[in-house]
Amino acid sequence: MKTIRFSFLATGLAIIAAIASCSKSETNKNVTPVLPPSHPITAGNISGFVKGTLLTGSTYTVTSDLTVKKGDTLLAQPGAIVIVKNDAQITVDGVLQVLGTQTSPVSFNSDTKTPGSWGGLACDSAQAVTIKWAHIDNAGGPDPTGSPRKTVSVLVPIVVDIEDSWITNGQDDEIGVRAAAKITILRNTIVSSGSTDGEAINIKDGATGDIAYNVVFSQAGTGVKLETNATVPIPQTIVNVYNNTLVSNGWRRGAAEPGRGVSIGVNAIGHVYNNIMVNNYQGFELFSDGDSKNTTYGNNLFFATAATFVDNTVTPNVTVNLAANFYPSDGVGKAQTSDLISVDPTFTSFSGTFVLPNGAANPNDFHLKAGSPAIGKGNTSFATTTLSTPADADLGAYPTDGKGNKH
Fold first, then answer.
1. How many CB atoms lie within 10 A of CB 76?
2. CA 235 to the chain's CA centroid
3. Which residues of 120-151 are buried (b: 16+ CB within 10 A; e: fewer)?
């Protein structure tokens, strides 16, 4: 009888705890829970097949390629530190959950802390990818053929959620998704990446979702690039691109293939609003092979701190007319009456930079000063689908209500 009473009591307590947990989750829907360790991984050297939890405050050294098998999960708790040696790559065929916090982000870096010195997160066959509040630095090291690798890559139609993270000093695409994935790419800061090529956020082959409140500074190629597969036109890539700040991109790749703030081509659809694009080689490019009938855009700010700039990546050098490149003449995009053309957004601080080397730090502060002309000029009702996070009435990644990028 005592055993039965105890069982009923334990069951009752479990039910009460479950109700309390549900109530709490209902009032904290935007808080990412920190999951308890499952198969805790001991700090120290790791390699080969891995699953389980990288623990808060622990440091792990990846000595050779690491693989998460299908059906397995690799979870990183806040404050976990991963140091990668020997150009190793982390391959995820299962589930990746990187759950840092604002005060205790997760860190991935190489032991040398130099650009392109480890292989990145190859999630090409993953089952799900979640990365929140993480530093992912100096990836893109060469593959066996000598070609640079992407920092985060996905080639399968899964849920991809990348938020509030810093990605710096990569060598190719920083976030590359080529599949009919559901993407949520919010409030990230991508700095000085791509050696002489590579986009910051490169979305292709039928992916759908939102790219918002990101800062992209000094990318070799384009800040945000959307395409559908050239030979498989359906499903289309359909992405909302809004409230991003895209500055000084496209110069290291130069005239051979100018980088843009945002580009849309190959039957992709974009809804592009409320972005700030400053000192990019080209601003917004809607290519003739993009789905111009269904693509919508407006309320974007374009500015250059000089009328012209000399591109010395080619011989003879090319003098670039910046204002003419806000909407390049080889595209079909046209300036909208809601755009702010050649209007200084008045960042808190900006050096006027056009070209910085791969791996350079960002010396600027892209928050808006009080009285900025970008305040209140946004479109908050452009979306035809529910957005992952609402658009803001201010332009760029740092709206004055504090709801944007937290970096």
1. 27
2. 22
3. bbbbbebbbbbbbbbbbbbbbbeeeeeebbbb
Helix (H) and strand (E) counts in the chain? 1, 35
Round to whole Å and give the CA distance between 382 and 296: 8
Rounded Cα–Cα distance for residues 257 and 266 (Å): 16
Q: Distance between CA atoms of 249 and 239, rounded to whole angstroms?
A: 20
Q: List the one residue out of 339, 350, 336, 282 whose CA is nearest residue 311.
A: 282
Instruction: Label the pairing between strands 208-212 and 318-321.
Output: unpaired
Cα-based angle 222, 133, 183 (whole degrees, multiple of 5): 50
Token pair 């089952």: residue: 127
Q: Is residue 171 within 8 Å of 145, Cβ to Cβ?
A: no
Q: Please state whether the peptide bond connecting residue 235 to the residue before it is cis, i.e. omega within 30 degrees of 0.
A: yes
List pLDDT tens digits, range 389-403: 999 999 999 999 999
Question: C-alpha angle with apex 231: 225 to 237, nearest 5 degrees?
Answer: 35
User: Phi then psi for 390, rounded to 5 degrees?
Assistant: -60, 150
Residue 126 parent element (H or E): none
The three-class DSSP label of residue 119 is coil
| DSSP conformational letter for 369 | P
SS3 for 52-85 is EEECCCCEEEEEEEEEECCCCEEEECCCCEEEEC
Residue 58 CA to residue 61 CA, distance in Å, equals 10
CA 272 from centroid of its chain's CA atoms: 16
Amino acid at the residue 290: G
Q: Tell me what pLDDT residue 13 has.
A: 35
Tokens, residue 153 = 């890559």
Q: How far apart are CA 214 and CA 185, in angstroms?
A: 8
DSSP code for 140 = -
Dump pLDDT digits (tens) for 344-361: 999 999 999 999 999 999
Residue entry with tokens 């130069």 = 254
* Per-residue model confidence (pLDDT) at position 133: 98
Task: Quick: pLDDT tens for 101-143.
Answer: 999 999 999 999 999 999 999 999 999 999 999 999 999 999 9
3-state secondary structure of 278: strand
Contact yes or no for 281/249 (Cβ under 8 A)? yes
For residue 359, give both structure tokens: 């791996």
Q: Which residues pair with 211 in a beta bridge?
A: 185, 241
3-state helix, strand and coil shares in percent for the chain, rounded to the nearest 5: 10, 35, 55
CA distance 188 to 407: 8
